Amino acid sequence: MSTRERSPTIDPEVLVPLEKKIRLEEHAIDESDIAKEDANDTLVVPGPSKKASKSAKRKQKRVLPEPYSSEDVLWRDIIALLGEDTVGQALQHGTEWDSPFDFREEVEVEVSTLSSNGDALAHSPASSAPWVIVTPFALPGERIRVRVYRSSRLHSFADLLKVVSPNLDLRDDSRAKCRYFGQCSGCQYQMLSYDTQLGIKRDVVIKAYENFSNLPKETIPDVLPTIASPLQYGYRTKITPHFEAPPKKARKEAESSSANSTDKPGWLKIGFNEIGKRTVLDIEECPIATPVLNAALGPIREDIIKNIWGYKKGVSLLLRDSIEHLPSDISSIPGPEDEKHVCITNHKATVRERVNSTYFEFPGHSFFQNNNSVLVPLTSYVKDAIFPSSKSSGPTHLVDAYCGSGLFSLMLAPHFDTVAGIELSAESIKSATANAIINRLPQGKCSFLAGDAANIFSTVSHFPPDKTALIIDPPRKGSDEPFIEQLVRFACSTVVYVSCNVHTQARDVGMIIERMEREGGGRKYVLESLRGFDLFPQTAHVESVAVLRLV
Asked: Where would I find the beta strands (DSSP E) of 23-142?
């Protein structure tokens, strides 16, 4: 991640010194002291002097959000809702941590907007100081009753108790296909129409570039409508339910009991995290997972229940949808009846996927996009961005940074003379190389090299920059400054940045443009287009594709 950090303050001249002071104080905390304070927090300590001391210790523990993290993204949304003047005054007066709400206090509020993380944001009642209530599963315009369970800087997190006045223009609870929606932390938007979900995700991309790119507003193009997923349910090809090992007390009771070992203990939950809690929610079926995974989940659960007393530790399961066997003839796309799918549960087993007519093999634990249905639209869009119809000729060379098992390299290989994929993981490079052979690409057309993406351009120094396109598809933390410095020096004609975290993407795109303006000798990158892709319908997540052109 870039070492450049932007202050989360409002007025740089007035507030930056205050924030710097807070950050220095907070980073000097001894973690052992924090652990002791956590233990003390459970005690009832009489006397104002001890209470004041305890309050002072709590203030020392307060840590500002990591830049570009989900907490930082939420903080920007809170600033936008409360207003810069209100936030600035609270920071100057040191009242930004003084929550007007007690633990488990219930309050009725009206939702103003949605955060980029998918939660509802509401102003605190007029009788209290300016504050924001953050609540899941509620929508703008709704009046809701909530219970506060944790407070932070100028905001409190609360459980949704009741939608007092629903927004019927947006909400239709009959749309939800999961009986655990509203309890499970996996989905946020099942009560919304799909068009509404796509619009919300477009707004997330817009806000990300407003808050994190440092680009002048006039240089940011209008964000194009979000590309829909062909499947809105039954799309997810990987799920990781989990469960805890038997508690000591339950184990002792079981050893001295004659209960049927096939009975499911009441404490055993096999599923996903419950919203706002650290507990597991017992889930027998996940509607956003593929039918193959749901069919396998039942027998897997039964086997766990049967053998639960043999587990000494909690387990995170792996279920991946895979083609059972590659066809003998890969030149044609098989019909659904000719392509059997199975559930892979072994981290080391081989998973097989087909994207249009291209096949991929990779180990079960490796990264691969978890919504196969949208991969053809995604890779086609990237190809069309590199080769716009308005230009008579395009790049001849492709550099695929963070190439993984070769998704973009292999899907786009027919359109280039030479393709080079770079990936830190040697195992992924092995998979990508094997996938090129599986798909019968001409020898030498695609080369895959294991190495740090920060050194990527030294391996392709012979590529002609004016005829080279670069695809960046990094992990959530984004790229780093050494990589961006090399990118600017190489100055390829087109950059397509695909990201699962639009906020770090906005930061990186801003850095690329700013650095090229400073060091490009009159050349500059222009942000040509921005667009979201919905890889995870029913959730708040949005993939983002940014296209930069050298002019």
From this structure: 106-114, 120-123, 132-135
CA distance 73 to 260: 50
Structure token pair of residue 431? 């998979």
* One-letter amino acid for residue 315 of the chain: V
Identify the residue with better confidence: 299 or 452: 299
Backbone angles phi, psi at 302, to 5 degrees: -60, -40
Beta bridge partners of 151: 156
- 131, 182, 190, 176: which is closest to 159 by C-alpha? 182
Q: Would you call 359 helix, strand, or coil by DSSP?
A: strand
pTM, rounded to two decimals: 0.87
Lowest mean pLDDT, pick from 6-20, 199-213, 304-318, 327-341: 6-20
Which residues are known to be catalytic? Answer: 500, 543
DSSP 8-state secondary structure symbol assigned to residue 332: S
Query: Which of 19-28, 155-164, 482-491 is the least confident region?
Result: 19-28
Helix (H) or strand (E) holding 307: helix 291-307
Contacts of 458 (CB under 8 A, 6+ apart): 486
Residue 120: phi, psi to the nearest 5?
-80, 140
pLDDT at 30 over 60: no
Residue type, 499: S
Asked if residue 37 has pLDDT above 90, the reply is no
Rounded to 10 deg, the angle between the 502-519 and 481-490 helix axes is 50
CA distances (Å), 76 to each of 81, 113, 116, 141, 155, in order? 9, 13, 9, 21, 12
The C-alpha atoms of residue 156 and residue 97 are separated, in whole angstroms, by: 10
Q: Is there a contact between 209 and 545 (Cβ–Cβ < 8 Å)?
A: no
| Among the listed residues 65, 14, 13, 6, the one whose alpha carbon sits nearest the alpha carbon of residue 214 | 6
Residue 17 has pLDDT above 70, yes or no: no
Distances (CA, A) of 273 to 74, 107, 367: 21, 25, 21
